[in-house]
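[job 4417] fold queue: 2 targets
>>> target A
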Amino acid sequence: MIGAGILLACASAGLVVGAFSKSASPRREASAPPTSGAAPSWRVTPQTILPGERLRGEIVAIRPWGFEPEEIIRPQGRFLLRVDNRSGLNAVSLMIDSESGTRLRAETVPRTKLDWREIVDLPPGNYLLKEANNPDWVCKITVLP
């Protein structure tokens, strides 16, 4: 009886640790969402992370001299884009443009907030993450098919 109790306690602890490690993992693989016949588009869906969904992140820092890294190459699929403002500026005005120049997203992030996080889904292609007031600050994002 005591052995069964110990076995049950160990199994329960393993389930709790397993559940915690799945939810606390900062970098997860992304699986591509189902596609329809419609042309793919930019999607921001921070509230739609499903339990057990594996989602990978890309971290970009804004320094006083620009973005680090200056380029990201990743496979197609949803991912968490995290932009950490370490520039010292009171606010940053971030933009994501497609290669053709179409503005996909614009967001002003105040220093009190510092970081910007969004779950995004970009179709294959080239994109530019820019800061509006510093035209030389650019991070190229390439999404592979």
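>>> target B
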Amino acid sequence: MIVGKHIDVVRYDTLDPRMGRHVEHDHRSKHFAFLTKRARPRKKTTHWTSSAPPLNQGNVGSCTATSLCQWLNTDFAGKVQVEKNGGNYFDQQDALDIYSKATRLDSFPGWYPDEDTGSSGNAACKAARAFGYLTGYSWLFSFGSVQAAIEQTPLMVGTLWTDTMYDADNGLVKVGPIVQSNIVGGHEYLMTGIDWEEEVFEFRQSWGEVEDYKPGGYFAISFRDFVRLIDADGDVTVPKIT
């Protein structure tokens, strides 16, 4: 639906309390793309590392803020850990603090902790910027630009989450049919790399250690499946620290 003149909002009826991601974009955000839609990758296999343990959002719809804290815990963002968090990794309480503030900055009803109604990747970045953790954030608007951007920085992605996606085969998550009967809600998670030989994107989940994932909460989704998620109201946010 449209809120005011400029903001698109998509809200999900969720079957899982962890599915707290919604879509919220100002039409003007397209003028602040991290890369243009025509950007093309170098096809360089890339892995963004982190020595931090995986965060676990539990049964709270804080996936947007938790994935942002996972981003802040990457080695890529090590400067923020030192300068803004006393050299420590960001933990789940930090994620809840960001989530609480994000619910006061987004366009959705409900303020956490009084109401756990979810938020958006956009609002999580607004909150993190207010805390001084980010200098800004931008977006990506094409599949090719996502492939190019992950070669430069870790990314926050928000997509539908299907019932099929709960199951993984040695870390590979498949989407299955994108139909209402298979959709359990919206979810935000961290994109940590791209493997051109396997033709997969790599991610880190916000559910701690997960059975049938790789150690550390890492999993993969094929290019073929991920483009389908992007086409179904997916959004990709690029946090900035410089």
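[job 4417] complete. Note on B: The first strand starts at residue 2 and ends at 3.
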